[in-house]
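URGENT: need a sanity check before tomorrow's submission.

F., can you look over the SpoIIE family protein phosphatase record below? I want to be sure the sequence and structure line up before it goes out.
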Amino acid sequence: MRRGLARWVLLLSILVIGLTLSAAVAVWVTETQVQRTQDRRDDLAQVARIESQLLTGYVDEETGLRGYLLTGEDAFLAPYARAALATPQLTADLRTSWAAVGGPAGLVDDLEAAHDVWVEHARSQIALVDAGNPDAASSVTETERGKDYFDAIRDRERAVADWVTTAEDSTADQLSGLQTRMTGLLAATLTTLLAVTVAGCVVLWRSVVAPLGRLAAATRAVAAGDLAATLPATGAPEMRSLATDVTAMRDRLAADLHGTRQALDALAQTGPAVSALRSALEPAGGVIPGVVVAARLDPAEGVLAGDWYDTVALSATRLAVVVGDVAGHGPASAVFALRLKHSLLTALRAGLAPGDALATVCGELADVPAGQFATAFVAVLDAGRGVVEHANAGHPAGQLVAAGGRWTELDTTGPLLSSVFVGRDWTTTTTAWAPGDLLLVHTDGVTEARDAAGAEFGTEGIHRAVAASGTEDPHRVVDAVAATSMRFGGSQPRRDDHTVVCLQHVPVAPAARTSSDVGRDAVSRR
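Structure tokens as predicted:
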């Protein structure tokens, strides 16, 4: 089963919202990581600056000491003194920044220890010069010892610098990867949103816009007078439902238009006698629980028809339906139809089976000219037992439409009603009738409607009309069959009356039965 458009829109909306939220979370996480990485890069740069300043101080100390030892002049101790004052603070700053970037604590400790050793050596040499023994301070031994101490400082400083360089390179690579990921996330999000948007537009076009355009064009054709125009039911389920509803509306309008034409034709059939005859032919419309009845009769001339139908309740669970078609139409046919109608209903009320009722009525036609005849479909619908008992006197086959879509023909069970066939018998046939099933009965005017090329509407036309309208609503089925047959015949003059009767078996809640109900059922089954 195809999903409805509303469900697709909901799923697409959830997809877009979910994608947007996921992308937003991913971008936020990546941006947070980028910010942290940039902060680490800045911290490493701060460590590198302090380390560079500290190295400069070490060099100034070493250079000032060497100049003082060679010359003995106090002016050379000025750089040494300044560096000696700045070095402890720089070392403390380096230790703080070093801990912030997670550097190995041992490297700074080693550097500070190496510097302390050199400082002690430098102080001892300065003390020798101050004591008047510069030769001892600048001896080869002391000079080599001082050089070794300072080389140890340089080695420790180089280890710190190498660690900082490695950390900066790693941080730069990490930052580059995060920026690449951010670019990929944005590109993937935009691409996916574009794809979802394009897919949504395609679905919207194919499911709504295009089908709506076709339906609008067909509706304009109907509005222009082409009642036979096909209203396409394509696209989303909502669009197909709309097309079905528009088709039902078109069928109802077509029926109303035909009723207007009937009213105009009726002007030629006015008068008290015709009015009384027309009123007598109106169906009494008996109903029972469990059976829905829908019917319509469209005379070929004015409002007097040779077709007729009626229903009568035989008990709380049994309903009789009679559909007849007298040869010809107009007042004479209507009088004969009235006679047959009351005779058949009287026989059915007396408890006769459909076949026996036809035989009894035919036996009363001995005085009718042989050229005057009729067809009739008689059925008793038993909602309690779930069966249809029918007899068919030369009438078009009734159609039993199961809820699952299976069609069963209730064909003729004897000859038509005429004085020629007095004494003949009609068989009564019993067929299962489940809840949801339809019994569709029509006269030959429906199936014998012809198009401009002379092709008949036929039973296939009825099948198509019912398939288009569905079997859920018998009133819609009746309107669809009648209107489709009328459209099939086009603007050609109608040659015969059209009658369509549809009865649907619907489930009802069980109710307690009275003794009178039981008695009536016993009489009606005799």
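My own read: The first strand starts at residue 291 and ends at 298. The chain has a mean pLDDT of 85. If you see anything odd, call me.
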